[in-house]
Fold this sequence. Notes:
Layout: H1 5-13, H2 18-40, H3 47-74, H4 78-82, H5 85-100, H6 119-122, H7 134-161, H8 172-183, H9 196-228, E1 230-232, E2 242-244
Antiparallel strand pairs: 1-2
Helix pairs in contact: 1-2, 1-3, 2-3, 3-5, 7-8, 7-9
Amino acid sequence: MLLSRQETEFYLKDLETPLGKAINLTLAAMVLVSSGIFVAETYNIPDSVRFQLNVADTAIVIIFAVEYSLRLWSAENKIKYIFSFYSIIDLMAILPFFLGMVDISFIRLLRWFRILRLIRFIDRKFLFASISTEDGMIFARILFTLFAIVFIYSGLIYQVEHPVNPQNYGTFLDAFYFSVVTMTTVGFGDVIPISELGRLLTVLMIFTGIALIPWQVGDLIKRVVKTANQVETACSGCGLAFHDVDAGFCKRCGTKLPSRRVDSES
C-alpha cells in the first residue's frame, strides 16, 4: 500500500508508533554501521573484506538517498526543508558518494559528518529512551556531543594527514588519539601534523576544546546543582522526575503532583 505525502512525512518523523520506531531505529543503526565502516577502512584488512564493506556502504548510501528524496517529496515547504539543519546534514551524508564518482576526492572529507544524523534522534529522546532521569539525558547528550566532535575531527585529520604522514596517522585510532590529546589541550607532541590543512584542523581542535568542553561540563554542573535543590516526584502526566520542593503542579505539563509527606522527628 502506497503512503500519501502526509503519511510519509509522519512516519519519517514519528518515534512513537511501531512503524515510525522501526524506520528511525533502522536509520540510526545504519548511521552507526556506516561510521564503523569508515573506521574499519583505515586498517589493513583483506581486499575481500574491504570489497564487502564498500558494498555495504554503497547500499546504505542508496537507502539514505531514497530517504532524503522521500523527505523532500513529502515536505510541505520544500525550500524551507532544503535549507534546514537536518536537511543539510542528510545531504552531507550522501554527497561524498555521488560526487566521488566524478573523482572529487576532497569531498570525501564530508562523509565523517554522517554521524551527526543521530542528532535528529537524540533531540527527540529516541536513542536514550531507557534513561529515566533528566540529568541522565543531559549527561548522555553531552557525552554524545563530545564523542561526535572528536570522531569527526579524527576522521578529518586522518583523511588529510594519512596520505602525507602515514607513520603518525596510520589508522583511525592514531587520529583519534591525536584528537583527544589536542582537544583536551594536553598536547604530548609525539604526533604532529605536517600538512597545512592538518595544522589548520589542529588549531580548530584546540579552539573547539577550549570553548566546548568547559561549556558542556559547566552545563552539567549547573544541572546537578539545580537538581540538588529539588525532590524526586514522578509526574503522572509526562513523567518528569524532579520538581521544586514547594511545587504543587508539574512545570512541564501542569498536572497536579502527588502530595508528599515529610516525616520529621521532634
